[in-house]
Amino acid sequence: MAVVGQSLPPAICLMGPTASGKTDLAIELAQHLPCDIISVDSALVYRGMDIGSAKPDEKTLAKAPHRLLDIRDPCETYSAAEFRVDALAHMREIVAAGRIPLLVGGTMLYFKVLREGIASMPAADPAVRAQIQLDADRLGWRALHEKLQQVDPVAAQKIHPNNPQRLMRALEVYELTGIALGEHWQQQSEAVSDLPCQLHQFAIVPEDRAALHRRIEQRFDTMLEQGFVDEVAGLFERPDLHKELPALRSVGYRQVWEYLEGLLSYEEMVFRGVVATRNLAKRQLTWLRGWPELNSLSFAEQKNLDEVLNVISFASI
Fold it and tell me: What is the DSSP string of 229-289?
């Protein structure tokens, strides 16, 4: 799938696992290109969550301002669909000013939704799902797959009869909206046309996993030295916050919260925080495996800078 037409102005997407050096590279790029940085991070949108999210400090932001930071209170939610609307608005504004959008972060779902769009579909309905489950118990999933073939042949072709979860969702969407899931998918693919830029996608993909793990451990230790526990303690005191909120499910924050609850010792909190961050990095790298039209970068920072500059210079010719 092509990203967008070649005639559109460039935008840079800089992805990669946590602690891989994305922010440092983005700041370097902003010194060499007329870039405005847009954060692509589900934790950085929250106010008062600075240390544990590795939010750029004031000195860094003075040199290289970031958009989409501190736009939500931790008690609020922020969806991938909302991110896409906000990111597109900022991209259009940046392009209109004759500059290059530089989207930087590790929330891979946000990048995917930006690139591919998002279909407007209804939330799950327990009553409809219960009825579909009753039908499946009575008739079998293969019979329900045959029913799906009649109302939504596109989805039926893509969904295996032995995949009850996807079958249920496809039938549920049709029951709730009267519109086939395949048609929703078509609407989603058409949404790509609203991208104002050609996306040039780069990702720092460390070859040495052990080196990435060392960086993660060092960064977590540094966060603790900078006052991470005190930061979470301030959130912990708020009566409107709890650990099941999306903001506080962020890696590190949940573990420190449970330490403050007395559920973990300090040593357990540190261990679980590092493990959770490693697992996040693993999920991010899994996202990147097979990501279309991706330029892979390494830990070699000067080489990375030169490679991105070469690609963007060529694209601008």
Answer: HHHHHHHHT-TT--TTSTGGGSTTHHHHHHHHTTSS-HHHHHHHHHHHHHHHHHHHHHHHT
Q: Does CATH number 3.20.20.150 belong to domain 10-119+192-315?
A: no
Q: Looking at residue 192, what DSSP letter applies?
A: G
Architecture of domain 126-187: Orthogonal Bundle (1.10)
Predicted pLDDT at 188: 58
Residues of the chain under the 50 pLDDT cut: 1-5, 317
SS3 66: strand
Distance between CA atoms of residues 238 and 49, nearest Å: 13
The H-or-E segment that residue 99 falls in is none
CA distance 153 to 143: 14
Question: The dihedral of CA 294, 300, 305, 309: what is its sign?
Answer: negative
Residues of the chain with CATH 3.40.50.300: 10-119+192-315
Residue 35: beta bridge partners? 100
Segment 48-58, tens digit of pLDDT:
999 999 999 99
Task: Please identify which residue in the block is written with the tokens 């590795």.
Answer: 54
pTM: 0.79
